[in-house]
UniProtKB/TrEMBL annotation:
Gene3D superfamilies: MFS general substrate transporter like domains, Multidrug resistance protein D. CDD domains: MFS_MMR_MDR_like. This is MFS transporter. InterPro entries: MFS, MFS_dom, MFS_trans_sf, Sugar_transporter_CS. The keyword Iron-sulfur does not apply. Signal peptide: none annotated. It is found in: Membrane. The keyword Hydrolase does not apply. It is a multi-pass membrane protein. PROSITE patterns: MFS (PS50850), SUGAR_TRANSPORT_1 (PS00216). Pfam families: MFS_1 (PF07690). It comes from the Bacteria. The lineage of its organism: Bacteria, Pseudomonadati, Pseudomonadota, Alphaproteobacteria, Acetobacterales.
Length: 458
């Protein structure tokens, strides 16, 4: 069935579709946030070294990054529901493998398989929203709720993971995903209509390899940045070379490319990609550096640091569902540019207050960061998938997720390096947050200009 012939269900079916998509993204993000807590008990159980334990986390991130573009293309070619269900099934099976893993090597393999499942599931999920809600206002509301699930995972992940680890052991954090994965598969059959747009498109193997090398090299550079600077630098150079060749190959292939370069022609799409990368640059920098500073300075322990981060997650969860209504009332331009600018103000406040004995200013900065994320995330994704034809929904969804991943990867690497060069502490945090704030404000300016141009073009 072609995208244009997707049947419109009633309100009840749309709610069931959105519930299905939300469960899927929630378990994918929740699993990611919880696994970090389980590294120590996993190491004790398997008597594993630090290197192996790092790959328990990083194998997921690396495979997810490598296959994002593939997942988006397959959704457009083979069917968005089909690829969504394949990703959910693989993620569920991988969780079972992780729960039953007899060795740490098997656990790393299970985590890698889960990363592949997420690379199929998440772009397809966003593409389905683009197809199932053709009206921009309805789609904005759906995206707001879908986006809130990312924040919900961030908010409940540490508490849920801690409870499961304490009561049932580390294997339980993987087992808890399984019933929700099965429910996702059953609901998808009932609620999600199939759609695909394979015309004049193919797998494009050379671009797949080059894209995988570019994204994988970038992810590997971030993974190794704090372990082996030589490997990280080599991976980064490889990623840049692969990206240059990738662009050249795609320019030659035109409309049949894995990533047709004319996708970037609409100013709104370009702006959404840049603003999204800028947003995650600062957001993940805060999540990485602020708890580290608190713990190194003796202000808070691991549990206290997790609790202190809650204002950001809670504001994100509370505001995201309303972002669609607010977009309708105040306009997409205000939401995207304004939201990213608010994040910049939050980082600025955290940087200025670095070294203070009281956490009050940092908590207000985190609240501003969560507020800005809640306002901007859904509308930015809506602009990205709404600026391209339905036939390219999967590819657009993959690209906006690539922007998120690239922004987060570069943000942690750059801000973390600046923090280290300043010998950490309050000075390192201040410099890193001021740079992060500058990037946020620049990204907000891009969103403001491109959204205006898009509106004028319409």
């Amino acid at each position: 069935m072609q995208a244009g012939s997707v049947p419109r269900g009633g309100e009840q079916r749309h709610r069931l579709t959105l519930l299905t998509l939300c469960i899927a993204v929630l378990i994918a993000q929740l699993d990611t946030s919880v696994v970090n807590l389980a590294v120590r008990p996993i190491g004790e159980h398997f008597r594993a070294g630090v290197g192996a334990l790092q790959w328990v986390v990083d194998s997921y991130n690396l495979l997810y990054a490598v296959l994002l573009l593939t997942g988006g293309l397959l959704a457009d070619l083979l069917g968005r529901r089909r690829i969504f269900m394949a990703g959910a099934a693989l993620f569920t099976a991988a969780s079972l493998l992780c729960a039953a893993a007899p060795t740490v090597a098997a656990l790393i393999g299970g985590r890698a398989a889960a990363g592949i499942g997420a690379a199929l599931l998440l772009p397809a999920s966003l593409a389905i929203i683009r197809v199932a809600w053709p009206d921009a206002r309805d789609r904005a509301r759906a995206l707001g709720i879908w986006t809130a699930c990312n924040g919900l995972a961030l908010a409940i992940g540490p508490a849920t993971g801690g409870l499961l680890l304490d009561r049932f052991g580390w294997r339980s954090i993987f087992l808890v995903v399984v019933p929700f994965g099965i429910a996702t598969l059953a609901l998808a059959l009932l609620a999600i209509p199939e759609s695909a747009d394979p015309q004049d498109r193919h797998f494009d193997a050379p671009a797949q390899v080059l894209g995988a090398v570019a994204l994988g090299g970038l992810a590997l550079a971030a993974i190794e940045a704090h372990r082996d600077i030589g490997t990280a630098l080599g991976a980064f150079i490889l990623a840049l070379l692969a990206l240059a060749v990738f662009i050249r190959v795609e320019a030659r292939r035109g409309a049949g490319a894995l990533v047709p370069l004319d996708l970037f022609r609409p100013p709104g799409f370009r702006g959404a990609v840049i603003a999204t990368a800028g947003m995650t640059f600062g957001m993940y920098g805060v999540l990485f550096l602020l708890p580290l500073t608190w713990q190194e300075g003796g202000q808070l322990g691991p549990v206290g640091a997790g609790i202190a981060l809650l204002p950001m997650a809670l504001l994100f969860v509370l505001v995201s569902p309303a972002s669609g209504v607010l977009s309708t009332r105040f306009g997409t331009r205000f939401m995207t540019a304004g939201g990213v600018a608010i994040i910049g103000c939050g980082l600025l406040l955290i940087g200025v207050a670095a070294g203070a004995t009281s956490l009050a200013a940092a908590e207000i900065g985190l609240a501003l960061t969560g507020l800005g994320m809640g306002l901007a995330t859904g509308p930015l994704m809506g602009v990205a998938v709404g600026a391209v034809a339905v036939a390219r929904a999967g590819t657009a969804a993959a690209l906006i997720n690539v922007a998120r991943m690239v922004g987060a990867t570069i943000g942690v690497a750059v801000l973390g390096s600046l923090f280290a060069l300043a010998d950490g502490g309050a000075t390192g945090l201040r410099l890193a947050m001021l740079l992060g704030a500058a990037v946020q404000l620049a990204a907000a300016a891009v969103a403001w200009i491109t959204t205006r141009r898009q509106a004028m073009a319409l």
